[in-house]
Each structure stands twice: as structure tokens, then as C-alpha cells.
């Protein structure tokens, strides 16, 4: 069947349609960013006056917002460490090993991504409550790991499958130990995937609400829980400043992942094997 060449009007129409869709999707983000600089106390759009008072209130030392941000950062950092440990070990077993019931194990590892978060949160509450660990940053971090680890595992499996196993076989044939192969070949080539897994694990934990809501106490409230409480009975304009910061962090994180993957791919294409002897 003969295909008609695209016309200039068709190109313009597709460009306008794409621009309209992108504008529609970005409109809530733009509204939040503009409203966060409003000076009034009710969060109107567009603002009548502009100010940075809500950012100053968010960053005030000793305030609820600064305390929650610090707590969420601590929990997200712990979650990132736990997720990377689980992600690397599980991905090595699934991508490199020959496990019996491989499909069943793979499905079990990814099950937390399919189960509703509120169900997982309830199960974690019933697990940690008898142990008296409600409100513990460690308990919340372990709960967040249940959600973040599958993402890290998926990223690491994709990364490991993209590494040519012949490089590892060549190093082994020259007498390199498994530890040397992992240290000098596998992990350097997998660095972009490790960074991507760390970034997405951190974001998953920092933005998670249900598990933090079930496991937190009035003295230990993560940032999403504090945002929910601030909007439950009233509208606190500080929430717009917090949302704007979270949007900026997400954009920077995605840009970092894209940059690392680009640099990692460029480096690996020019220097796939280390120059120094594998000893």
C-alpha cells in the first residue's frame, strides 16, 4: 500500500497537539510553582503579591517542616542503603544465577509493586506494633524498603543483562577471582544502574505516604504525613513551597540519572575493559 508523504500542515498539527498535551500535563506543576511564591495566606492563583515567606517558614530551624524534612531524608537514606543491598544481591541471583523456580522467585520479588500500598502498610503495622517499633525511623525505613527494593532490583537486572558476560569470562580465564571480577569489571560497568537504583529508591521512600502514616507517631512524622495533616482540616500555603521543592528535587534527580547513564554509556563504549592487570 502506498504511503502518502506527510504534509506541512500535518507536521504543524502534530506539533500543536503535542504542545497542548504537554501544557495540560504540566499545568498543575506550573500552578504549584507560581502559587508557592504568593504572599497571601490562602494560596490563591494567580497571587496578588509575591514573596518567599513560605520557603522561609519551611526552612525555619526547629520548625515542624524542617524536622519532617530531616526525618524523611534520614529514612530515605536508610531505605536507599537497604534497597541497594537487596537489589544487587537479588539481581545477581536472578540475572546471573540458575535458580530453581526462577519465574516464581521473580514474581515474589516484584509482588510488592502489585499489592496495594495500604495493604502492605497494614501488614507492617501488625508486624511492628507488637515489637514496640512504631515511630522508629528504622521500622519506617524497613517498610519503605519493601516498596523500593523491587524498583532497585528491576533496574539492576536490566543493568546486569546489558553487561557483556564475555568480559567477565575473559577475566576469569586469566585467573581473576570472583571478587576481582566484580570489583574491576561488573560494578564499574554497572555504576549507572547503581546510581539510578539509588536515586529512585530515595525518591520512592521520600514521597511514600501510606506506610509512614501507619508506622509514624505524633512525634515522628515524615514530610508526606505532615503535608497530609496540614491539608486535612485547613490549607497551609507552606505546602505549596514544599511541593515546589519536591518537584525541583525530582527534576534534578531525573537529570542526574540521565547524565550518569549517558556518561556511563560513552565511557563503556570507549573503554570496556580495564587497562591495568586484573590482580
UniProtKB/TrEMBL annotation:
InterPro entries named among the record's database cross-references: MetI-like (IPR000515), MetI-like_sf (IPR035906)
Membrane topology summary: Multi-pass membrane protein
Location of the ABC transmembrane type-1 domain: 69-258
Pfam family, one: BPD_transp_1
GO biological process, one term: transmembrane transport
Transmembrane annotation, as ranges: 21-45, 65-91, 103-128, 134-157, 185-206, 239-260
Compartments, record wording: Cell inner membrane; Cell membrane
Keywords, comma-separated and alphabetical: Cell inner membrane, Cell membrane, Membrane, Transmembrane, Transmembrane helix, Transport
PROSITE patterns linked: ABC_TM1
GO cellular component: plasma membrane
Family affiliation: Belongs to the binding-protein-dependent transport system permease family.
Protein name: ABC transporter permease
Amino acid at each position: 500500500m502506498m504511503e502518502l508523504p506527510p504534509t506541512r500542515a500535518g507536521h504543524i498539527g502534530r506539533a500543536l497537539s503535542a504542545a497542548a498535551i504537554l501544557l495540560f500535563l504540566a499545568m498543575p506543576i506550573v500552578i504549584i510553582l507560581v502559587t508557592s511564591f504568593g504572599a497571601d495566606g490562602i494560596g490563591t492563583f494567580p497571587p496578588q503579591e509575591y514573596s518567599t515567606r513560605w520557603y522561609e517558614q519551611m526552612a525555619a530551624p526547629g520548625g515542624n517542616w524542617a524536622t519532617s524534612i530531616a526525618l524523611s531524608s534520614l529514612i530515605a537514606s536508610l531505605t536507599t542503603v537497604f534497597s541497594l543491598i537487596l537489589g544487587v544481591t537479588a539481581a545477581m541471583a536472578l540475572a546471573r544465577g540458575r535458580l530453581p523456580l526462577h519465574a516464581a522467585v521473580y514474581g515474589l520479588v516484584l509482588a510488592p509493586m502489585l499489592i496495594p500500598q495500604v495493604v502492605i502498610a497494614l501488614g507492617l503495622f501488625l508486624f511492628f506494633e507488637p515489637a514496640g517499633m512504631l515511630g522508629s525511623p528504622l521500622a519506617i525505613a524497613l517498610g519503605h524498603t519493601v516498596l523500593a527494593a523491587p524498583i532497585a532490583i528491576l533496574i539492576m537486572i536490566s543493568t546486569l543483562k546489558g553487561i557483556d558476560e564475555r568480559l567477565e569470562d575473559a577475566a576469569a580465564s586469566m585467573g581473576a577471582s570472583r571478587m576481582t571480577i566484580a570489583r574491576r569489571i561488573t560494578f564499574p560497568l554497572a555504576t549507572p544502574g547503581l546510581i539510578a537504583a539509588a536515586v529512585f529508591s530515595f525518591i520512592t521512600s521520600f514521597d511514600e505516604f501510606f506506610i509512614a502514616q501507619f508506622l509514624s507517631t505524633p512525634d515522628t512524622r515524615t514530610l508526606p504525613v505532615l503535608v497530609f495533616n496540614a491539608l486535612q482540616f485547613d490549607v497551609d500555603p507552606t505546602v505549596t513551597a514544599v511541593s515546589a521543592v519536591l518537584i525541583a528535587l525530582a527534576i534534578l534527580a531525573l537529570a542526574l540519572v540521565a547524565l550518569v547513564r549517558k556518561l556511563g554509556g560513552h565511557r563503556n563504549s570507549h573503554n570496556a575493559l580495564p587497562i591495568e592487570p586484573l590482580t
